[in-house]
Structures are given as C-alpha cells and as structure tokens.
Amino acid sequence: MNDAARGALEVARVRLRNPWLTMPALVTLSLALALWLNPEINRQLFEGANSLARGFTAPFWLFATLAGDTTVVLALLTAMYWRRPLAIRSVPLTLVIVSLLVHIPKPLVSAPRPLALLGADAVAVLGPALTTQSFPSGHAATAFAGAALVAFAGASALSATLALLAATLIAVSRCVVGAHWPIDVAMGAAFGWLGAWISVYWSERAGPITARWLHRVGLVIVALCWLGIVSQRIVLLKESGSKIKVLSAGRPSMG
Q1: What pLDDT digit, counting tens, does each position of 37-86 carry?
Q2: pTM of the complete model
Q3: Which DSSP string do the residues of the chain spell out, in sequence order?
Q4: Predicted confidence band at 154 (pLDDT cuts at 50, 70, 90)?
Q5: Does domain 3-250 have CATH number 2.60.120.1440?
Q6: Domain limits of the chain?
C-alpha cells in the first residue's frame, strides 16, 4: 500500500465515525417519511420535476439518468483504484447489500409508477415507459452508494461533495424522466448511502486475506462493468451502421 492509500485509509477511519456524514441518509429518510405522510406533496413534486422533461434541458436529464446505471457508476470508481483502494474493496459488499435493499421491497410493495397512475397524457417520459415496481429507485440507490464510497473511502472533501451533487442530480432525473415518484428516489438514496456505509465499515475491518480477495473481486466487477459498457457501445455503433446502409440502399438512384 502506497503513502496516498495509507493516508486515504486513515481519513476513511475518521469519516466512518463522523456523525455529519450520516446526514445524506437522515435527510433522505426524513424526506421519504414526509412524502409518505403527504402523498399530495409527493405528486406535486413529481409533476414539477417532470415538467422539465418538456423543456430545453431534457437531454441533460436523460444523460443524468443514464449515468445512474450500475455499470456506469461502478466503472467510474476505477479512478479511485490507486489512491483509494478501499472504495474498490468495498464494491462487492456494496453491490450485494444495496441490491438486497432495493430488489426485496420492489415486488413486496409493488408500487405503480407515475405513468401507470397519471396516464400518458399527464407524464412526459424520456426513455423506457415503465409502469410497475416503482419503490424504491434503483438508480438513486446506486448513485448515492457510489457517492458514499467516494466520501467514506477517503477521497478529498471536494471530490466527495461533487460526487454527492452528481448523485443528487441523478436521483432527481428519475422524476424528470417520468420513471419514479420523489418518495421512491428519497428512499433509494437512503438505502444506497446506508448500504455503502455498512460495506466500507466492514471492508475496512477485514483481515489481510479477506481484504485482498475483496479487492480482487471488486476489480473483476469494475472490469466487467467496463466490458459491458464497451460491448453496448459496439452494438449501438453496428446497429447505427446497419440503419445507415438500409437508408442508403433505399434512396432512388440519380443516374
């Protein structure tokens, strides 16, 4: 372990005991409770956010929601490999814990999404038209888990702040694109932050052998995410090329 990594580990140990770093989870949990008690406010907040999908900022929000995909968030953690290895070591546990926190409630609660309740005329949809298993938001959970890994694994205060800001924009984008209610986003964010905190806490206390294997598994997961992103882009490029060929073949000859 190099000096930068040792320094980051010391920072992580301090931050894991810092009560202020529980604020994102406490704020989002409080917001989720408030929205559960006031469903009309939950609906109004959704309608206000979703109205942005009809404006000129729509491409930005679509990009933000795509950035919340699990493969993208985990792939971006590659930047922390050398100086913040605890983040990579914590990836396997974070993935398991956050997945359980998100995917167990989805079928149990089985909450309808905005499109199912309000109808296509009232909801502007950017991306897939989703109608079921709204609670909680997986994208918000993933984004906040990634931000928490950056914060708790010893990154600079600026990096942690920027990561939290990016996670917030991703979470809000899920309402803008018409996929989730604000309560879904708030609860998903809380699950993501808490899941990452638990993961970093246990990963930091793992023995040398366990830590080494967690780090290796984390690297494999991150590598697979990059492979998935590259493969997806290759498929999209091939599909685009095929469409161009079809369009060219369909044009009348000028000769």
Answers
A1: 999 999 999 999 999 999 999 999 999 999 999 999 988 888 776 777 88
A2: 0.89
A3: --HHHHHHHHHHHHHHT-GGGGHHHHHHHHHHHHHHH-HHHHHHHHHHHHGGGGSTTHHHHHHHHHHTSHHHHHHHGGGGTTT-HHHHHHHHHHHHHHHHHHHTHHHHH-PPPHHHHH-TTT----SS---S--SS-HHHHHHHHHHHHHHHTT--HHHHHHHHHHHHHHHHHHHHTTS--HHHHHHHHHHHHHHHHHHHHHHHT--HHHHHHHHHHHHHHHHHHHHHHHHHHHHHHHHHHHHHHHHHHHSPP--
A4: confident
A5: no
A6: 3-250
